[in-house]
Amino acid sequence: MGNNSHSNEFNYTYSKVKINTRYSGLINHETGKSYSIDEVQSYCKETNEPLVAQYDLEQPLNKGVLQGRPFNMWRYEELLPITDRRFVVTLGEGFTPLMKMKQLAQQYSLGSLLLKEEGVNPTGSFKARGLSMAVSKAYELGIDSFAIPTAGNAGSALSAYCAKAGLEANIYMPKLTPKMFQLDCSIMGANVCVIDGNISDCGVAMRRDNAEGKWWDVTTLKEPFRLEGKKTMGFEIAEQLNWKLPDVLIYPTGGGTGLIGIWKGFHELQKLGWIDEIPTRMVAVQTTGCDPIVRAFEEGRNFSVPYEDPDVTIANGLRVPHAFGHKLIMKTIYESDGYAVRVSDDQIRDALREFAGQEGIFLSPEGAAVWHAARHLKSTNRIKDGESVLLLNTGSGYKYAENLW
Ligand SMILES: *Cc1c(COP(=O)(O)O)cnc(C)c1O
After folding, report:
1. Which of 142, 325, 334, 385 counts the highest number of beta carbons within 10 A?
2. Is residue 388 within 8 Å of 248, Cβ to Cβ?
3. How far is the first Cα of the chain from the last one, in angstroms, to the nearest whole number?
4. Residue 346 CB partners (closer than 8 Å, separation 6+)
5. Distance in Å, CA 320 to ligand 1 centroid
6. Residue nearest to atom 5 of ligand 1 (CA)
7. What domains are defined for the chain?
8. Is the pLDDT of residue 6 over 70?
9. Which of helix, strand or coil describes residue 321?
10. Are 35 and 25 in contact (CB under 8 A)?
């Protein structure tokens, strides 16, 4: 897996400031209305739907362009929205390990069990990818202050990239978020506002404080570029597996950017001819106390409805009562012939312990939810003997210690 040439940012010099990106603007995924590359747009105010970045993928691009580039998410620069290298705000995010979990694969009769370990990203989660991209693009567009409602990791990541670039971050976080997340945000100089409520309540408070619109709102899918950072997981999975995708990919779904992004990434690679087939069934995992996507799936709907009074869970990132990109999440599940599965906190604890004991990896509660979902789908025969299954461990378990004593 992977590639062994050891180039990094110290021995690789980019020759030009201008990036040869194929980025061609934004599109409303429902109406098809498009916006040029120079228009600063967040989401479609008329239809209340996300805007999605488009690329010109008609002209051929050889995989060889990757050769020798540093192993971080910026190696796919032709397929990213930044046009000027000087605005890239990076802490080395991406190109995380993709590892074989041999013990558990054997025990559960899987062809292969793969773990993409996102917990090693800056600030300990895959949120680094999305916020590195969103902050870089906004910086390029001349924006200098940001706001976000967060279940923890997105706030940490926004704080870090804003600190690095000298920009302002305003973080709205539920009171029940582990203290570590409040601590690292404020240590990195962000303004942290702790709210007695869930992430949707944080969004309401943030919009109230931002009524004049002085801050760039980077709520999940309310701006288009976090998705572009998250899709690099799809590029890496393809590259690390030698351009052959797994049968099943399981993802802990809050706002859904990772699920949607990976699926988008796979299709961009297919358009370029870098992969032939996309056999992957995409699985969304939620908790029993907040499962709007699972309910929509079980009822065959292509949209979810806001979940009232979500229960507290140790998997903070999954306590999202309504995802702005809910229609895109449902579309991904159906298009890929996937599933949506709910998991309880007890099952998360049990799965976390099994994975740690057998494979030596301390999953985040969200990652452990994914492992339980895999066991469950296998035992109900929706994953068959011999299939390849890829799990996303979206964050480091260590930041959640307080939830797990
Ligand atoms: C944010 C988060 C999630 C959910 O990600 P979405 O892209 O919002 O669906 C899952 N796991 C962890 C650790 C997170 O921080």
Report:
1. 325
2. yes
3. 36
4. none
5. 9
6. 254
7. 9-87 (no CATH), 98-125+225-404 (3.40.50.1100), 127-217 (3.40.50.1100)
8. no
9. coil
10. yes
